[in-house]
Amino acid sequence: MSILIVGSLAFDDIETPFGRSDNTLGGSSTYIALSASYFTEKVQMVGVVGSDFEEKHFELLHSRNIDTKGVQKVEEGKTFRWAGRYHYDMNTRDTLDTQLNVFADFDPVVPHQYQNADFVCLGNIDPELQLKVLDQISKPKLVILDTMNFWIEGKPEELKKTLERVDIFILNDSEARLLSGDPNLVKSARIIRNMGPKTLIIKKGEHGALLFTDNGIFAAPAYPLESIFDPTGAGDTFAGGFIGHLARCESINDLEMRKAVLYGSSMASFCVEKFGTEKIAALDLLEIEDRYQSFLDLSRIDN
Ligand code: AMP
After folding, report:
1. Range of 264's domain?
2. By CB neighbour count within 10 A (0-12 exposed, 13-18 middle, 19+ buried), where does 78 fall?
3. pLDDT of 89
4. Residues 106-137: pLDDT tens digits?
5. Less packed terminus of the chain by CB within 10 Å, N or C?
6. Could you tell me where the beta strands, DSSP code E, fall in the chain?
């Protein structure tokens, strides 16, 4: 199955209690695409970059077989930039700066080869742009959406309009509370699912993730790691692993969705072990499967 991903391609300045990394390749769609590329061969990106996006950055994506025909390069502009600082517990971060740059005037054009994409993953980006992309796909089998507080606060009405057309919505706990207006996550899930998406995933950072479907709730732990360097992109990497697993399934049901949550969590656990995309750009399938098995072992009780 093919996955079309729209989202940001970015340069990030990241500060954690363990160090800093400037001008690091990042962006929601970069993380999603790299992560999904371990599960399916047809990963297609739609986005925009500026003149500062170099050939080596494209090469990194191509080295994972990611199709970047849908990424426009605007020579007179600069790539999206984001700066963030993590606190000691790494679950909280401050956004220090967001510069939309070339995204401010971006009018996404989905190449005709992508218009029959099976899955559409609307990564964190302006919800109006997410909708514009969705309008150009003929009949996607599954639409997945990720967002963040920046858009929940900045464009709530546009986001709600986009949500009406989404099957699976992924967001984190504080974003769920913000969007629903309710502090309780189970109630939040009900309120948000009534906005459109039948399936909802609430990520809780180092405390795992909750999957809400018509058939109930599934709770997945996060992998207990001794060293967490940089949580940037963990949420997007989760989304990439999640959708990547679904893309290789014959049919999508609750069991596969639960497995997908664990594959997403496995990928996210790799992401945080190094700065930026360094770790998830160079994994092999065996270590992914190993981590997945460790996840199963985490809460298994044998008689
Ligand atoms: P995550 O840690 O999964 O929330 O994703 C972090 C990535 O999202 C970084 O690489 C940023 O470049 C990107 N990002 C941050 N803010 C935004 C935004 N407002 N719109 C799109 N992408 C963003």
Report:
1. 3-298
2. middle
3. 81
4. 999 999 999 999 999 999 989 999 999 999 99
5. C
6. 3-6, 10-16, 19-26, 43-50, 67-74, 80-86, 93-99, 119-122, 142-146, 168-172, 199-203, 209-213, 216-220
DSSP reduced 3-state for 144:
strand
Answer yes or no: is 202 within a domain. yes
What CATH number did the domain enclosing 252 receive?
A: 3.40.1190.20
Nearest residue (CA) to ligand 1, atom 21: 125
Nearest to 42 by CA among 64, 27, 60: 64
131 in a structural domain: yes
Q: Give residue 235 CA to ligand 1 midpoint distance, Å.
A: 9
19 band by pLDDT with thresholds 50, 70 and 90: confident
The four Cα atoms 71, 74, 78, 81 give a dihedral, to 10 degrees, of: -20
**Tokens (6 digits) for 271:** 């992401």
Ligand 1 atom with least separation from CA of 238: 3
State in Å: Cα 28 to ligand 1 middle. 5
26 located within any domain: yes
Whether pTM > 0.85 for this model: the answer is: yes
Instruction: Give the pLDDT confidence score for residue 229 in this predicted structure.
Output: 86
Q: Is residue 303 included in any domain, yes or no?
A: no
Q: State pLDDT tens for residues 181-230.
A: 999 999 999 999 999 999 999 999 888 999 999 999 999 998 888 888 89
